[in-house]
Structures are given as structure tokens and as C-alpha cells.
Design goal:
By secondary structure, the protein is α/β, with parallel strands linked by helices. The chain contains 25 helices and 27 strands.
Length: 743
Amino acid sequence: MQLQRIVRLVLSALILLFLLIDTSGLYKYPFIKQLENWTYDARLNFTRPDSIDDRVVIVDIDENSLAEVGRWPWGRDKLATIVDNLFNHYAVDVVGFDIVFAEKDESSGLEKFEQLARGSLKNDSLYQQALNEIRPSLRHDEIFADSLIGKNVVLGYYFKTNLQEGETGVTGLLPPALTKMDVQWSERLPINKAVGYGGNLEILQASAKSGGYFDNPFVDADGVFRRVPLVQSYEGYLFASLALATAQAHLEAPGIELAVETEGTRGGKEYYALETINLGDHRVPVDANGAVFVPYRGRQGSFPYIPAHEVLSRKTNPLALKGKVVLVGTSAPGLLDLRSTPVQNIYPGVEVHANIISGILDDRIKHKPAWTVGYEFVLLVVIAVSMALLLPLLSPLLAAAGTLGLTGVVLAGTFLAWNSNLILPLASPLMLILLMFMLHMSYGFFIESRGKRQLAHLFGHYIPPELVDEMSESPEQYSLEGENREMTVLFSDVRGFTSISEGMDPKQLTQLMNALLTPMTRVIHKNRGTIDKYMGDAIMSFWGAPLADSEHARHALYAAMEMMDELKIMQEDFKQRGWPEVNIGIGLNTGDMNVGNMGSEFRMAYTVLGDAVNLGSRLEGLTKNYGVNIIISETTKNAIPEFAFRELDLVRVKGKNEPVAIFEPIGHKNDLEKSVTSELTAYKKALMNFRAQSWDKAELDFFNLNRAYPNRLLYQVYLDRVAVYRSNPPGDDWDGVFTHTTK
């Protein structure tokens, strides 16, 4: 018993050490960061007010406005009318544009008229006189600039953190900076340092009161907008975000003060930390990067939306705008200013700025101070020591009750801090509690149980029941001796299974795997397939044995497609049970394989071997590289002529010298929609240009495809390859093959 207790303590210490490595920053585990993001999102959504703040109004360039006024961009004479109406008719307080005006407005046709005046109509006095009369009304940029003068207008622009090769990185005019950064600040404050910017036309920016950037270099790895920097630096000067500059204009704050505190020394130098940004009487807590956690009030619509065309035609009630902070932006999907946020996957970017302004006005910005690292470290140690000492002494029922109680204490403390605008770490303490409970409750079962050998013996004699049933019906037709046949093999694997398993207790994980594998097996059986084996979260199956099947490739593909359909149905059930979303990749290959009863005198299994089998496994592993669910080989494709396929690549997989063409099944040719056919045609052209080394044409083709279908990883893969091959051409003898060096 003493030895077992020591083993438990050692295992508990290893779990604690594993988490402390992340807390201390020695190595950051991405999955813990993602879990922390999820717990943050849960707290935010659980406590969000879901109320409307009418102090900030969004003038929305929505679909209706585009239909009324015309497609974007609008002539700047119309924008001038909007500005004049907002200030002169509606008496708003401040207007911020979540738009950059980087190029001249040539929509009036003035340049064409000027060309005629200098050319064929040079001597036409009537034309010259008419042009002189209408010229002022055609200078849209000047009209817009005149409307900005003397008004509380903040123009948007963006900074660039990275530059592409050959890019200058500077366009337009920057607004005045907040301040010139102290040399020590510039060196030691981890504020994002921009390397370029996209500003407004000089005539426009010079006429506006100020400007603010609307880019966000701190988008999380999952693409969600949780943090936004209020300040960025460029060439030693500090600049404000659109939200901060607009709030400053509204509050009439004469300046913005940065509260920088020292926190000892690092590397022999005094360490500086940015604590708050002070805007008049408002203290805005920020992290070391000068960023804030966006205080989302709720889903889209937490602020009044007024269509831009109603402002243009003065149809809006003046009381809805009088004295308000106005942000001009867009919710139209076609203008590509939609973001993923914790409260909603598709969320207008302009409303992100509105939430920050609202949070500044209410002093509602939540903060994650630097000392939370120490708090997390101490909390983990206390939890680990307490559970390691107490759980071995408690019965399973008391241990479960104690674990639930400890979880409740941690959650209650975290929510109390949250209500005080403090963000305390939650993912690692909860993970530690779960892992410690799993360790001590399962220790007896996995380590001490005398039934372990019986379980291993049972699985050692496992034979697929469907194979036994088939052979028992007419055993004379089958031989377990090895033979060579043309067959089709299928491999499927759960993506991210390690992360899924670490977030579930053993019982839940078993239930999930049973709920996943049972329907998948049913689909394979329905399509005349044989289960070779289950490899943890993976399935290996084949067609063409023991029963001969002349349509083995077709049956295998239909099974793969139906497996993906079945998975979509299962996701809703998983969601209701509180289980994570599960995704799978499937690889199919057709070819000659050795099939038979293989193994040892202790265990035999009816299985397939051969190079074609190995290729099927490699194809499954490639699915995540191309962002697809199913990849098949050319031999499988050729056996199913009624299906439409997308050629993904010509590859040389690890372990094979000969190149292999790989394809993604799209659907039956008779069922394809016109849009799908058009996409496939455009992609085929792009691939042809790519293999012809016409990099410019290929890049343009793939860029257009990527823009039209941003969720399809394949087009970004080829854009990245074009960028590499442009710098490092593959040579005139290139056969178009891409070599994968990993499985």
C-alpha cells in the first residue's frame, strides 16, 4: 500500500509539473490556451448584459443601402452629404469611419472630361465654359474633404505588421500621433510595432479632426476577436485605435495618458509594464501589449443600426442620432467586414469598435493583470497537494463529492473576480482537478485490478463477427490462405483525438467512441465492407474479400460519403450530450493486396497487407493538409466514372518513389449544381497554369478562388506554393509533383 501511495503521489506531481510548465511560460501548450479561450467565452456569454446601448449608433452600409444607392464604393459626394446630414441635420457629437479612403474618387468622370478639354474639344469655348462651371461639383474628394473641416470626424486606417516581398508598405497620410514614445518604452514595452500603414488621402486626413486604426494584429489562433490593441507604434510614435480616438473625441479629452509602471528588472535592465490608458476621468486597463478584452454587450444588434441610405435621404428620426457617437461601417457580407467573436461567429467588425467605446464610457473593460500568473501558480500547487493527499483516503462517492465541491469553489472565486472586472485563469485549475480525479479514481482499475489480464486475453482472441458469420454460411467457398486480389482499402481517423480524449473522463470517452464507431461500422457493413481492425480512434476496412466484389471501389466510395453524412447527424447528438465536435479524415486506395489469415500461433487475424494498403493509410493522413474529408487515389477514381472529382495534387508520399494523383470526391455528375461545376472549371484552369509554371496567372486564379471560397484550404495551399516557387523555381524539368515528407 505504501508503494502504491508513493506511485500516486509521483503521478500527481507529474501532472502538476506538466501544467506548471505552461503557467510559468517555459512552454505554452496550444490546447490549454484554446481551453482558456473557451472558458473566457463561456464567462462572457453567461454574464453579458444583452442590452442595447443607444449612446453609440451604427450608420450601416447594409444590403438595403447598397440596393438603394448603388454598389460600393459610393461617390464621396454622397459621403459628404452623409457627414453634413449627421452634423447639421441630426446634430451628432462625433463620427468615426470604419473605412479607409486610400484612393482617389474618379467616379464623377472629371478626368475624362479634362482629357477632352485638353484634346479634341480644346478649342470648343462652349465646352470649356460648361466644364469650368461643373468642375467644382465633380471634385468629389474635395467636396468630401470640405464636409470634414471643423467637424468631430475620426477617419479609419490600418497598420501593417508584416510586409510582402517588394511591398513598400506606406500609402496615404497618417493622422497626428498620440505621442512620441520614450526610447525606454519603445525598447521594453511589447506594444505592437507596425512596419507600414494604409492611410487616407492626404486631403481627407488633413481635413478630419483625427484618425484611428481598425486593424487587429492580436486575433487569437482560432480566428476569434477577443483582444484588440488600443495603441500601436510606428517609427517611434504611438497611435490610437479607431475606438480609442472616437472615445477621446466624444469625451473631449485633451490628451491620452499612458500609465507605465516598473516591475523590477529583467536581464539587468529595468522592466516596464503598461498598466492603463487614461482618458480624462476614465481608466482603461490594458495588458502588456496595450490591448483590451472587448466587452461585448451581446450578439449583433447591441447598438442601434440605422441604414446609411436613410441618413442620406434624411428619413431617420432626429432623436435617434442627436448627441450620439456615430460609427459608419458595414454589415453587408459582400464588403468583407464580418468577424468571428465569442458571442457570434459572424459579427460586424464595426460593432466590435462600438463595444469598446461603450466599455470605455462605462468603465466596463475587464483586465487580466500580470499578477494572475503568480495566482495561477499558487492555486495549482494548492489544488494538487490537497487532492493528492485526500483523494486516496476517501471512498469513491466522497471523492466525487469533494471534487465537485472544489470545482465549485474555483468557479465561484473566478466569477466573483469576473464581476469585479478581473479575468482569472480557469482552464488549467479545472484541468488539474479533472486529471487528478481521473488519476486517483482510475488508478485502481488500470493498475490494481486483477481483471486486467482477463481483459487482455479477451481482446487477444477477437475476430470480426461479420467475417465469422459469412464464413459459417458456406465455408467451402472461402480459404484463409493468403492470396493476391485487387481490392479497395479504407482508412478513417478522428482528427485531434488527443485533445478530445484529454478533455473527457474515461467513461465519457468510451461512450463517445462507441457512439462514433457503431454507426460508422453499420455504414461499412451496409456497403459490403469488412472491418479489418479498430486502431484506437481509427478504422481500417476493405472491400473485395472474403467475398469477391467486382464493384469494390464504388462500394467503398459510397461508404466513405455516407460515413461523412452520418457524422453530420451524430454531431447534433454529441452537442446535446456536451461532447466535443468530432471530425474525421478518410483515405481510399484501390490496388493489388495480399489478403488472408495472418499473425502468430497465439493470435490470428484476417487482414490485408501490401503497398496499396500503405498508400491508403498515407492518403488518409493527407486529408488535413488539403482541408478535405476524403482523399482517393487515381485507381479508385478510374473505377467510378459516374462520379465527379477534384484533382487535389500530384504527390510523392513518404515511403513511395512513384508520384500519385490524389482526388477529392465531389458527388454524382448528374447531381452537381452549376456553381460547383463552375468552381471545378476555374480550379482546373488554375491548376493547369500552376503546373505550367505560369505563376502570375496561377496566383491570380487561386486568389480569386480563395476569395470566393475562403473556407477551402486547398486554394491557400496553392497560393503558398506559388509564393515559394516564385522565389525558388522548381526548374524546367519539374513534373508537377509535390513531395510529402511526413505521414
